[in-house]
Amino acid sequence: MYLNSFLTHTFRVLQESLLIFFQFYSFLITARLTLVWFPNFNPFTQPYYSVTLLTDPYIRIFRGLIPRILNIDISPIFAVLWVQSIVEILTELVSNY
């Protein structure tokens, strides 16, 4: 009885932790993509450079899979959509318990 309760509680904490992580990562990707639109912003200053180092490996996965359309890179849109779908799935799982 106690083991089942412990496992249920552990699983819920894991779900909530993953949900918070993916929500924060989605925020980081959105912030990075928003800051790209400002031409006077130096991408090598510390806060922006750290965000770039954290999000670039993930965005590069989609850049390799999705070709440019009319020389416009739309892969970050799919990267954000993928993270948002994971957030929605985890939100649904957390709300069911």
Instruction: Quickly count the helices.
Output: 3
The proportion of residues forming helix, as a percent range, comes to over 70%
- Alpha-beta classification: mainly alpha
- Secondary structure tally: strands: 0
Q: Quickly count the domains.
A: 1
The radius of gyration over CA amounts to: 17 Å
- Rounded mean pLDDT is 86
**H and E order:** HHH
* Largest β sheet strand count, sense and barrel closure: none
Return residue spans where pLDDT drops below 50 for at least 5 consecutive residues: none
Beta-strand portion reads under 5%
Compute the separation of the termini in Å: 18 Å
Shape: elongated
What is the structure about, briefly put?
The chain is mainly α and 97 residues long. The protein has 3 helices and no strands.
Task: Please specify the SSE layout and strand pairing.
Elements: H1 2-35, H2 46-65, H3 75-96
Helix pairs in contact: 1-2, 1-3, 2-3
What does this structure look like?
With 97 residues, the chain is mainly α. The longest helix has 34 residues.
